[in-house]
Recover the amino acids of this structure.
């Protein structure tokens, strides 16, 4: 096929200039062909790359020509999937390919690169090695039923289990940071019209994204924007004011959207005009907020009310005093948000991670700590060995040594085409 299009099979790993031709020899385009024979290629299979001039029409014709000769379009993620299936990379690394492409902040890109280079997998593999070693010891001692307990005590298996838990917590901590970098958080700004939601939005974003006016109820629709705070992707939604008893259809729709947005929020900032104080209207809005969401009350306009910048707890609510107009107190709000979601911008060596990785880590943790209880409470080495096996399987899901076809389909189908 390559010879039919390029007229020749290029020398391995050399950029070969050639004309890409139709069946009747007319030239479709001219460009560069690169040949990577397997197994020293990205997928581990023979790969040829054709680089043309990039016009969609010409590219389309070139693809059609390849298809006429027996090729087919790749499925989303198929290149990475093949690389995984051919042991060129493990599952966490393959996922990092997609995360690197999609990363929205520099920190996220750097973390994805770390995962791609194997930082995450290496930590998991090193942990698995220790775990397997311990499991083999425990299993071996079961065979000496009479002396089992002595064997386990002598090797300080309980201490080893505690050490494993500490190591696992360290990995999970990094993974949580990696997930925050990958997925970010969504913050909803709520409050009465004119409380200062748009102004706060602009302060956070650092520009005039929302329209700030003196007319109550200007922000009718939900205004969404993605910004970064120290590498943390933040989706801010600036919602319509929650008016009471409005009959205006547009405002009613705005309120409905606000409720939707609140339901999906990771954190709610309820803005209150501090120069007016907490009004019955504000209290009503506060009571209408979803009870299960972290919420911070923002006492805005301190430049007018005369209050100091500060953070306190009022009526059981985290409260921050600031001015969205002058910017006083914004740094405090940033720190507060980081703390609320557990983001540590200064943490080094973070690797990118996904929810499924965190799930696997917490299942492994649960199994090991169950195992510890079995040993400490019942002296049951057999049960401990079984729990350690469960932990091993859970961690194997991260690197892909232990996976189902459904999981692979799910992971690779979310990739972009051609990756
Ligand atoms: P929204 O309706 O809640 O989005 O409120 P806006 O952000 O549009 O603000 C309403 C009015 O309050 C505008 O005139 C803002 O300039 C003003 N405002 C907002 N924040 C502050 C603040 O911290 N201090 C003062 N003095 N005015 C503010």
């Amino acid at each position: 096929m390559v010879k039919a299009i390029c007229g020749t099979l290029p020398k391995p790993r050399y950029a070969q200039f050639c004309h890409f031709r139709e069946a009747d020899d007319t030239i479709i385009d001219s460009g560069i062909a690169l040949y990577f024979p397997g197994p020293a290629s990205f997928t581990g299979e023979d790969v040829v790359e054709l680089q043309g001039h990039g016009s969609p029409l010409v590219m389309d014709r070139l693809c059609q020509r390849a298809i006429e000769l027996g090729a087919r379009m790749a499925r989303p993620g198929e290149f990475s999937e093949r690389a995984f299936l051919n042991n060129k990379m493990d599952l966490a690394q393959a996922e990092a390919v997609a995360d690197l492409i999609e990363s929205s902040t520099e920190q996220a890109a750097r973390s994805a690169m770390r995962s791609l280079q194997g930082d995450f997998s290496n930590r998991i593999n090193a942990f698995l090695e220790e775990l397997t070693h311990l499991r083999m010891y425990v299993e071996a001692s079961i065979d000496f039923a009479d002396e089992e307990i002595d064997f386990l005590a002598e090797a300080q298996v309980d201490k080893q289990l505690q050490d494993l838990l500490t190591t696992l917590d360290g990995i999970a901590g990094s993974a949580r940071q990696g997930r925050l970098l990958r997925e970010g958080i969504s913050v909803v700004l709520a409050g009465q019209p004119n409380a200062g939601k748009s102004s706060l939005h602009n302060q956070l974003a650092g520009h005039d994204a929302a329209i700030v006016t003196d007319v109550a109820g200007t922000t009718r629709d939900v205004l969404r924007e993605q910004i970064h705070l120290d590498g943390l992707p933040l989706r801010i939604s600036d919602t319509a004011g929650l008016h009471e008893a409005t009959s205006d259809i547009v405002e009613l729709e705005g309120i409905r959207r606000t409720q939707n947005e609140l339901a999906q929020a990771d954190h709610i900032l309820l803005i209150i005009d501090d120069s007016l104080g907490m009004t019955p209207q504000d209290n009503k809005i506060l009571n209408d907020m979803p009870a299960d969401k972290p919420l911070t009350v923002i006492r805005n306009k301190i430049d007018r009310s005369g209050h100091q910048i500060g953070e306190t707890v009022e009526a059981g609510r985290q409260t921050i005093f600031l001015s969205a107009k002058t910017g006083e107190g914004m740094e405090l709000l940033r720190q507060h948000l980081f703390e609320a979601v557990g983001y540590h911008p200064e943490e080094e060596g973070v690797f990118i991670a996904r929810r499924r990785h965190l799930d696997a880590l917490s299942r492994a943790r649960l199994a090991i700590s169950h195992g510890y209880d079995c040993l400490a409470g019942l002296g049951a080495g057999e049960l401990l060995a079984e729990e350690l096996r469960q932990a091993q399987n859970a961690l194997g899901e991260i690197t892909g040594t232990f996976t189902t076809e459904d999981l692979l389909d799910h992971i690779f189908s979310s990739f972009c085409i051609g990756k």
Remarks:
- Residues 157-183 form the longest helix (27 residues).
- The radius of gyration is 29 Å.
- The chain has 16 helices and ten strands.
- The CA atoms of residues 8 and 27 lie 14 Å apart.
